[in-house]
Amino acid sequence: MNNTDFRSRYGPWAVVAGASAGLGAEYATQLAVRGLNLVLIARRKEMLDELGAQLAEEYSVEVRTLELDLASEESGPRVAEFTGDIEVGLLVYNAAVSIIGPFFETPLQKHLDEIDVNVRGVLTLTYLLGRRMLERKRGGMLLMSSLSSLQGSALIANYTATKAYDRLLAEGLWEELRTQGIDVLVCIASSISTPGYLASQPEAGPVSAMTPRAVATEALAALGKQPTVIPGRGNRMASVVMQRLLPHKMAIQIMGRVIRGMYQKA
User: Fold this and answer.
1) Are 38 and 92 in contact (CB under 8 A)?
2) pTM, two decimal places
3) Nearest Cα to 1, choosing from 33, 28, 23, 25?
4) Average pLDDT of the segment spanning 231-246
5) Can you list the domains of the chain with their CATH numbers?
6) Please, which residues have CB within 8 angstroms of residue 234's CB and are 6 or more apart in sequence?
7) What is the Cα–Cα distance from 11 to 67, expressed in whole angstroms?
């Protein structure tokens, strides 16, 4: 799909949640290249404003920035009000909380915060912005999930559960909306070399972390063509092995060993 067709189908505005750095900033950049105006949402206003100014100048698009904690109950009404006067044709929900560690050593409130951003925030923005797209019979939604959502895992049990919700929500909406002009895609990613991932200081995993550019490129190329995309050939091969060739119990155990090897230092 060329840039003109992309903008016609998913423009004139795109909302990118979790846009201040890493993968979110890369999504924003690639959408600006395609000529979409942007609403950038994240908690770090200074980084948002800097990115927004850069994209507006370089690609001659309009950019609005919204400082917002997507774990907040007010996030939905604020986004709805902030975008009420523009036509949003694309939602990219990239924001996520990822807590790593033994389940019962993590305070309950942190698990609930993870659910607020990864589940309730996704549902809220998908519902509010998706209804407006449905009225116009045109638009798209791209939700981020994780390869870890395909089976449970020790040390990230709640995170994998939230990402399974995102995956299943997107797959169901893809089938429900695909004949009504709305394209829905879930990107099932593995490790991505974002600032947040690097700050967690993981040991090397079985598959190398992908760059944000590579993930965003594959995801946007798949939008409108299929319900799911797994960026990276190695990740797709790993998914086939884990989901089709191994017993599910073994896949859970292997995933747990991988996460322990990455985050439980000897």
Assistant:
1) no
2) 0.93
3) 33
4) 91
5) 3-263 (3.40.50.720)
6) 207, 208
7) 22
